[in-house]
Structure formats: C-alpha cells, structure tokens
Amino acid sequence: MARFIATAAVPEVTHRILSPHGPIEVTADNSQAALEASIDDEVIGIILRGSSGAPGGLIRGARGLRVIGRTGVGYDSVDVDAATECGVAVITTPGANAATVAEASVAYLLALNKRIAYWDRQMKERNWASRERFLARDVAGLTAGIVGFGNIGQALARLLGPFGVTLLAHDPYADAAVAGALGVELVDLDALLRRADTVCLHTALTEQTRGMIDRRRIAAMKPGSFLINLARGGVVESLDAVLAGIEDGPLAGAALDVFDPEPPDFDHPIFRHPAVLTAPHAMAMTRGAMDRMAEMMAQGMAAVLNGERPPRVVVNPEAHGRGRAAAAGG
Predict the structure, then answer these.
(1) pTM reported for the whole predicted model
(2) Nearest to 17 by CA among 322, 304, 286, 314
(3) Which residues partner with 69 through β-bridges?
(4) Which of 132-136, 206-210, 302-306 has the lowest mean pLDDT?
(5) Local structure of 204: helix, strand or coil
(6) Angle of helix 98-113 relative to helix 287-305, nearest 10 degrees?
(7) CA dist., res. 150 & res. 26, Å (int)
C-alpha cells in the first residue's frame, strides 16, 4: 500500500492533506538508519525532519518515491541531482517561518547587546555590585549586518527598522529595489563584517556559503561585535573559530541555534562560555510556524502527486514529468 515515511511526528494538518494518497508512518527515531530501514517500493513520499537526509542511494533505491518534503528552506541534506534524475520533486516551505526566525534574530540581538543572560547570572549569584562594573549597549544607533537577504533577511530588516539601527545586508541575489525600500545598504561580505555591531546569519547553506564565516573573517570583524547564526551550522567554519573569535579576537559574544553536525559535541567549551547563547535548532519551532510549514509542505507534496506543478515550493521543477513522475502520469 502506498504510504509516506516521516522522520518525526507531523501535525494533524499534514495527515489530513496527504491522507487521500496514503497514511504517514513515523520512523522509530529521526536517525538516518531508521529512515533507510523504513524505505521500500511502496513509499511514495518522504517527510524529512531533524538531521536525517535523502542521499542519492536512498532516492535511487526507493523505486516508488515521487516526492520529498522538508519543512523550512534548507535542503542541503537532500541529493537534489539524484532526485531530479529520478523525477522526484523536492518540496520546501519558503517564507512560512520567515517572521518567526526574524523574531528570534531580534530576540538574540537584544539579549546579547543588553547582556540579559549576564545580568541574570549575576543576580542569581547575589552579585548586586556587578551593576557598577559593566554596562550594556543601546540598540539605537548600532549597525546590524544581515547576511542573506531573502524572506527571513527582509523580515528582519522590517523588524529592526523602528529600533533606529543602521541596516547593512549582503546577498549576491538581493533585490536592490527591495533593499532600498527597507532602508538597507547592500555591501560585500567583508565590508559588512567590518562595519556591523551585530551580524545576523540568514543565508542558505550551499557550496559557496559553506564555511564562509571562517577564522579570517571573524578576526576581521568589528571589535566588540556579536555573531548570531540562525541559518545553518555549516555556514560558520567551526565552533572553534567562533570560540577563538571571542577569547582572542573581536567578538563580544555569540548566539547559535544551528550546528554542524546536529546534535553537536556538547563537550565543546563553547557550551560553557558565559558570552554564548545556544539553542537546539529550536528558535523557528513555534506552534504557528510549525503548522504553517507543515501545511505548505503537505499541499506541495499533494500537488505533485496530483500531477500539478506547485509554484515556489518545488526546489527542482525540472523533475516534473521525468522518470518516475512520467511513469506515474505526473
């Protein structure tokens, strides 16, 4: 019987939209091994959650597979070339969680510049006198740098505008008209890193962006600046590079929601550093965002299975009508 495999539980709306095509079976855990053990020729769709992925061997071996869905905008864990070769559509959810991630970036920017975690720690240690030894910063008048100016980067610019900050952005594909309307100056990456008091990473992970925030670039950042990563862990060279930037370089602190690999090595000293805020790739996982992403993903998957070409949400539209899609009448 045709069915879907999901690597973690999905909201009810996903079951409802996909139920005409088959039930959704959830793997025992979200490991790659559990996913691969669940695949057979009756699996028509895979829903990827967590750190599991769809490498070429899995895609080519799943002869009934027609569509892969992933909530969010990242699809670096999917072999898109193999999917296209096999006529398997890859679905993401662009824009569905943009406001949520942008809000998280603002929350981190405020927490770092206002030293919220530091003051909380001092109070819990009964250190009232600490208020005389350290000052937080006003956000008004700071320069915020946004790396990646897609849906999330633009949403962040709109949120930060009323704070009275200077806005910079770097994105080779940015729309200059949109940037201008939002009061954002488009600059190259190195200029952004030199000028920004807080750098917010919101770029996709590609061959071009992997490791682009490396030791050299971190060392060249503005003294006293903060680094926020809500993009992908692989955009930053390593946790060692971030830690070195704090201990021996210009960084005053960092906020990290994403890591490479995930989960990370919790023995790394960055997880004990008082100037670093961390989260388990959870800042985009509000109830509203999860429901919006699940609905958009499921609608896109259903459209593929109905032989339609869904707009925007298909990463590889050239897969339409090829391979298994053609054989299935898609």
Answers:
(1) 0.84
(2) 304
(3) 47, 91
(4) 132-136
(5) coil
(6) 150
(7) 32
Instruction: Confirm whether 133 is a catalytic residue.
Output: no
The residue annotated as part of the active site, out of 16, 25, 63, 262, is 262
Tell me how far CA of residue 326 lies from CA of 18, 41, 47, 81, 323, in angstroms.
20, 17, 22, 17, 5
CA 139 – CA 126 distance, rounded (Å): 27
**Which phi and psi angles does 185 have, rounded to 5°?**
-95, 125
Domain ranges of the chain: 3-95+287-327, 98-278
CA 42 to chain centre: 31
Tell me which of 115, 170, 281, 292 is the catalytic residue.
281
What is d(CA 135, CA 52) in angstroms, rounded to the nearest whole number? 43
- Distance from CA of residue 27 to its chain's centroid? 23
Instruction: Kindly report the number of other CB atoms within 10 A of residue 60's CB atom.
Output: 15
- Work out the number of other CB atoms within 10 angstroms of the CB of residue 123: 12
Is 125 annotated as catalytic?
Answer: no
Q: Give 306's Cβ-side CA count (13 Å radius).
A: 13
Q: Which CATH number fits domain 3-95+287-327: 3.40.220.10, 3.40.50.720, 3.40.1010.10, 3.30.530.20?
A: 3.40.50.720
- The verdict on whether 262 is a catalytic residue reads yes
pLDDT in tens, 247-259: 999 999 999 999 9
Query: Which of the residues 21, 217, 232, 292 is marked catalytic?
Result: 232
**pLDDT score of 326 more than 60:** no
* 167: its two tokens: 């806005």
CATH class (in words) of the domain with range 98-278:
alpha beta
Q: Which residues contact 197 (CB under 8 A, 6 or more apart)?
A: 113, 137, 142, 143, 144, 222, 224, 225, 226
Pairing of strands 67-70, 89-91: parallel
Q: How far apart, in whole angstroms, are the C-alpha atoms of residue 238 and residue 234?
A: 8
